[in-house]
Amino acid sequence: MTKDLTEGSPFKLIVGFSLPLLLGNLFQQFYSVVDTVIVGKFLGVESLAGVGSTGAVNFLIIGFCMGVGNGFALPIANKFGAKDYKTLRQYVASSIQLSVAFVLFFTVVTVVLCRPLLRLMQTPDNIIEQADSYIRIIFAGIPILFMYNLLASIIRSLGDSKTPVYFLIVSSLLNIVLDLFFIVGLKTGVRGAGFATVISQLVSGILCILYMQKHYEILHLSKDDWKIRTHHFYVLSSMGFPMGLQYSITAIGSVILQASVNSLGSDTVAAVAATFKISLFFCCPFDALGATMATFGGQNTGAQKLERLKSGLRASSLIGFSYAFVAFIVLFLFGRNLGMLFVDSSEVLILDQIHTFLIILSAFYIPLVLVNVFRFMIQGMGFSSFAVFAGVFELIGRAVVAIIFIPIWGFTAVCFASPVAWILADCFLVPAFLYSFKKLKRQQNI
Asked: Which domain holds residue 288?
């Protein structure tokens, strides 16, 4: 049930490993898009704007949790590549222990600070109640989200990228059914979208637990594995929290950007929310390549096969560039039609903004490819702290556009915020990889 990424053609391994991840990401974005479509079609533009206005703060908090969970799995991938299964099991136990303390604290803090964060972001008064109702439920479900993300990351670290996808598909379909049940059937408004998301993620997490117990003998933990090991806590923290911080620092830039977008009115908020939903869907291949690089980098670093790291980067970049070109053509031709999934055809201004935004974003997908493959490769190699600095560059890019240029150029400036952030991050990540690679060679005397 596991897969060794240290032997064989990097190109074939990357394609084989990333395709299930891509399918999972597509389904994850699919039910996220369906969330937005149901809210927009059944509850109206203001509800769409209310849920959409939480996107940045959602990414800030949930992104941090996802980054931490992914980071906790990196030492496990490293020990799997080194075939040190005893230490691997100890890291699994330590990651669970550390996660319990982390999520309990983090959930309380985020639920308490939910409303102040929305106020800080200048959320318009006509949508703040709906925004608060939705995002508070999402934050209360952080333990559930973290459980699934950690378990799925552990499974992927063993080279199995397919199993978490199957569970995610079940979760996605369930989420759609629950959306309709809560929003259309029970008339719960935007809270229903939050309930549907949390419940569907709970199902995914439970399925992961049951599957791991039944099929992964390598993960059967003994009483000795559960001993408190402070060194393991340190290693996990040094991997996980920088990855989480990288997401959050990036998201802070998005929060600043969202605050500026909010000042442009609820129509623009709705247009930006719909655009990001569509773009996230088209960016799933980039996310899949990034997650693949983290596991590929972790296993090959553990196996001391460093030259395969460069081969992996070349292969994943080629795949990403090819897809980026196709995505641009599709969004250029059909972006407006995709916008009509979220709003009626009578909303001409919103549809124009969606189409323009999609064209500009997709024109810069190649820099986004490099952000994903280099950043996650560096993390897999064990240099998670560099990801934080990449996030700082993205933060600077989005903040400068939001603070200086949006007040002058309005919506046009919004369209260029992410491309500027991606290009700045690449200026750091490429040299950072070269430095990390040379340092690893010195450490391993290669």
From this structure: 10-443
